[in-house]
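Journal club side-thread
Mid-discussion, someone asked how the predicted structure for our own chain would compare to the paper's figures. Pasting it here so we can look after the session.
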Amino acid sequence: MRLLVNTLPIGSMSGNHVVYGFLDPYSAATLPDHDLVIVHYEDNPPPAEIVERGATTIPVSLRYKNWAQRLFWETIRLPGVIRGAGADVVLTVSGALTPRCPVPQVVLCQNPWCYRPVVHRNWKERLKARLQRVGYSNAYQNAAMMIYISGHLRELYRSDNRRKKECRSEIAYVGLNENTYQAAKQHADLPRDPYSILSVSAMAAWKGAHTLVDAVSILRQRDIPAKLRLVGPWPDADYETRVRNQVARLQLDNAVEILGRVSDDELHRQYAINKVYALASHCESFGIPAAEAMAFGTPVVSTDCCAISEICEPAGLFGPVEDPRWTADALQTALTDDDQWQAWSKAASCRAQTLNWDRCAEAFKLIPQLADVPPSSVYSPSPASPSEQNAS
């Protein structure tokens, strides 16, 4: 069986983490008995270990990186590439079907953005979301198999397609890289910074940094000297300005650190020294930073409207979005109740151990069974969304 993987929809570091994280154990388990062909942009080749196992690579010019140009290439050129490669099954990572595909398709679903109107900032994004939902709906009915990275994400697809027949589906949680586990062991003896809160994400408005700032202000009013560290890029300069102005207005300059991007080593140190991880997000299909924080025994406070509560349930508290007072109450428990913190920390470490790639990639072992499933000719465009640039 020859599997061709179309990785062109990958638009972020988290996308690489997910797709190649799954392909690493898949390639180790199937090569050379089966074949693996990876279509990728010239500047985003597969990891060396996958290529060294015998995977074939097909680079695509960077001039097709814009979503509309990518769609053109996938529609006009990719079917011929699939035939020329002799592929039996195609894995597409966009959440929708590859156009005019001559063989059965497995669809990896990572992106909940189009189902969350609160994150659509203008009419262009609303139009893209509508087109994306059409593409997702076609895949939901006609793919040989859908693989969702959380049950939460599968429920979003199901809620939008209640009267439609669902194709076969599996849930495959995202795994943690081995270097995360190793770093957690190396940093196990670092002292925790008292009353410290860490938030790691691409800081888009729907990630809720403003809610965490308000929660810190409430905690300070209760004489709890909470400190908040915000780690990650700011894709929206206006939102960054809003949060910085909020910090100044609430006189929290000494309580809130905006660190931006940091190195992997510094990120691991932050997971280890902070008392709690928090993200007040509207929209997460998994929550990789929250899962990484658990590997360091760090409890989690987040919302119950996204996948983080599913992934991290035993390791903290999860409640309403846009609710600074609830968030402050939850953070207060994590910061001041030592017995509860210890229980959550232990649960976090145990939960993180289950998120290893070998275990998480089990669903991908089903792909060779799909080579004889009839291909679907149904397709609607699925444009890129802001969350293809921002971590899930």
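Post-session note: The CA atoms of residues 119 and 206 lie 6 Å apart.
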